[in-house]
Queue: 4 jobs
Job 1
Amino acid sequence: MQLFLVAFQQPIPFGISTLVVAVMIGIILKAALSSEGGAGWVRRVTNPNAKFLFTFLFIAWAVGFGIVLQLVPHSGASTPYGALGLIALFTGFFIMMGLLWAVIGE
């Protein structure tokens, strides 16, 4: 029951999270509707040189989160630092999938 009352108990965080979800759905919809050779950013990401872009992104991700996650205290997954680790996990996964897609799709 408490989950259904969040919109009334904390309207500002609920509104912000709703806005973030709407933006994410818009981005996903735009990406799904773009066909091969559609927008300019699609051509840049799908060209044969995209493997270099994703390689540099992966190196920057590994160095960046490698340094950041070593500086934070290791106090568990239920802390804000655990959330930072989860963000690192998801972003790394998508960067690596982009790299694999760029290399295999060539």
Note: Helices lie at 6-9, 11-33, 40-46, 50-71, 80-104.
Job 2
Amino acid sequence: MEARLAKFSIGQVVRHRIFPFRGVIFDVDPQFANTEEWWRAIPEEIRPSRDQPFYHLLAENESSAYVAYVSEQNLLPDESGEPVGHPQAQVLFNEFSDGQYQLRPQMGH
């Protein structure tokens, strides 16, 4: 598999194309890097291709905050202009402006 360039960036707020959640990207895998069990748990009819970037999100929905692992094909830019309410966002990122968080310098790798 050949890795593609990521469409989204760390600190960008995105939303899921199908499911009602949004989040801020805190890491990117150039291609699928989770377990086989995780991948097979996705129903085959909506299972994403492995040869695309996958994003780690500090995600939130109406009732909870959690970490999500989402394929690029299932993400869209979040146009709300609102920050993410995930409690870990303040740990990993500095300020939020223009729909983008700035990664804290000590958090970069």
Note: DSSP finds two helices and seven strands in the chain.
Job 3
Amino acid sequence: MTSQVLFAALILATGAERLYEVVLSKRNAAWAFERGGKEFGQRHYPFMVALHAALLLGCLAEVFLADRPFIGWLGWPMLVIALGCQVLRYWCINTLGHQWNSRVIIVPGAGRVTGGPYRVFSHPNYAAVIAEGIALPLVHSAWVTAIAFTVVNAILLFGFRIPTEEKALADLEPMT
């Protein structure tokens, strides 16, 4: 039971972090719109929000209702990966500055950021989301949640979100 309580605390902390990101995203969206920002992909955005909320709720439901055990050899490495995902996420957020947003909003003339983790690949934040979607549930062996999130997230990311961003960013000049 102790491991379940600690896992619940981890999920609640992750939820609190996501609420902070919502506030930051709204602030950055206002900044972008004040500068003529144009939003893309509005139709898929509510599904992404629902999916990310479902990840957290699914973790809790599966661990408590299905009585999933904490398995040390799996849980500890997954916790390290989940925490590492937060480091990568905030590196992305800091690198993008005011341009970071949970929506796709392009500010004319702002340029496409190519520094920080964006030097390595185009969508490092999504790498963090993918890894976290697997690792976070597996901290407490919630494998059904990990699989379900990963499949639906892959459909949303590769079918909608990344193509939307690539199209929106296509005409921006690179900047570091």
Note: The longest strand covers residues 38-40.
Job 4
Amino acid sequence: MLTADGIDLYYGASHILRGVSIGAEPGKITCVLGRNGVGKTSLLRAIVGLQAIRAGRIMWEGKDITALPTHERARRGISLVPQGRDIFPRLTVQENLETGMAPLPRDKRSIPEEIFTLFPVLRSMLGRRGGDLSGGQQQQLAIGRALVMRPRLLILDEPTEGIQPSIIKDIERVIRGLAARGDMAIILVEQYFEFARDLADRYVVMERGEIVLSGEARDMVETDVRRYLTV
């Protein structure tokens, strides 16, 4: 289980996160919702160690990882699919997938067959450069790369952004299937309400660096959530 408790984060003098607390547990999907600029990505960066926090602590599987660098968190099974995908455009699909092996012991550095079961298109494109793929294919590659490291916490930052509807359905199927295995916790940041609603077990809604709504998905009141998503 992940527990981020009372997180305060600053960029210079700007107070970006204010006492934010969030949890994630195996077999469950926690969805983080909110408009652009409310601190969702900053929260993810704090969890994976890409941004230092000013106050609070981050616990993972019973241990305090607040001071651990990003690569050590990755070795402990925390994996991020960043907003915008951030694949390597000049590397092939296979080479992009192989970059996900970096946190693994040498004897476990292989691409699991499961990646190609989840995303069959990647097998047929192993020799193509990442930059030649469509946006939806790049998103599947980014998720596949994150899964290569066999994460126990998978964090996805707006995986539907700029993606065609057919691939959104494929990504939804994959995320639901990964959660159903019961051995992986998932945090999903999303603006697309219907996508998040259909996947969430728990949800939190952010506004101006704070959590303003949270609870079990079954108790979610759509009108209350939507007023924090509309511009």
Note: The mean pLDDT is 95.
